[in-house]
């Protein structure tokens, strides 16, 4: 018995595959009878090969059937469930974009009466905002005032001195601060040096 290969099976049509699977099943029945009646070991070793060959033939038959069905339902609005994309259970049950964007008559009137307003804002003072992400071991959250290498921060409730060149320093998280400078971005080397000094001074 020659081992059946899927590449060879794909070249055959449906009738040839049915004929081959019938022959394999007949051979498998013969081998099982030989097993019960005490046949040779060479015959018993063929049982597994024939079983796998039958499985391969059925796999190719099902694949061809699915391909033909996909071609048949290609332009149909509704398809069988096994031909639809699997995705996830939640996505399959979700609303379509059309359904999700539908509005009630009351909502339509409300949006018409109160559309989004657009306002023009005048910039009175230009400044540059830079956010520094410090090392994980640095904690600047409890700090109310820091002054180093010419940069100063005063708490949000106090006003900076006229001589300092930092408008504000905002603590975003434990190890992230935001600094607003007057117009024009400072030198990158100064920012890098400032970040290093803060990490040195306030490392937890």
TrEMBL record:
Keywords: Ribonucleoprotein, Ribosomal protein. GO terms for cellular component: cytosolic large ribosomal subunit. One of its GO terms (biological process) is translation. Pfam families: Ribosomal_L29 (PF00831). SUPFAM superfamilies: Ribosomal protein L29 (L29p). InterPro entries: Ribosomal_uL29, Ribosomal_uL29_CS, Ribosomal_uL29_euk, Ribosomal_uL29_sf. Gene3D superfamilies: 1.10.287.310, 6.10.250.3450. One of its GO terms (molecular function) is mRNA binding. NCBIfam families: L29. Belongs to the universal ribosomal protein uL29 family. PANTHER family: 60S RIBOSOMAL PROTEIN L35, LARGE RIBOSOMAL SUBUNIT PROTEIN UL29-RELATED. This is Large ribosomal subunit protein uL29. It comes from Melipona quadrifasciata.
């Amino acid at each position: 018995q020659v081992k059946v290969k899927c590449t060879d099976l794909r070249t055959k049509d449906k009738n040839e595959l049915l004929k081959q699977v019938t022959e394999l099943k007949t051979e498998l029945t013969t081998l099982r009878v030989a097993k019960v009646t005490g046949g040779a070991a060479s015959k018993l070793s063929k049982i597994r090969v024939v079983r796998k060959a039958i499985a391969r033939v059925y796999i190719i038959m099902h694949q061809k059937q699915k391909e033909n069905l996909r071609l048949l339902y290609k332009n149909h609005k509704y398809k069988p469930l096994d031909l639809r994309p699997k995705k996830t259970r939640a996505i399959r049950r979700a609303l379509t974009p059309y359904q999700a964007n539908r509005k009630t008559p009351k909502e339509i009137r409300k949006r018409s009466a109160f559309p989004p307003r657009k306002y023009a804002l005048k910039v009175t003072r230009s400044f540059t905002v830079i956010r520094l992400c410090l090392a994980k071991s640095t904690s600047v959250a409890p700090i109310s005032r820091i002054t180093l290498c010419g940069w100063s921060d005063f708490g949000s409730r106090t006003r900076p001195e006229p001589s300092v060149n930092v408008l504000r320093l905002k603590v975003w998280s434990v190890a992230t601060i935001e600094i607003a400078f007057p117009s024009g971005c400072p030198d990158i080397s100064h920012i890098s040096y400032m970040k290093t000094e803060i990490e040195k001074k306030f490392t937890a």
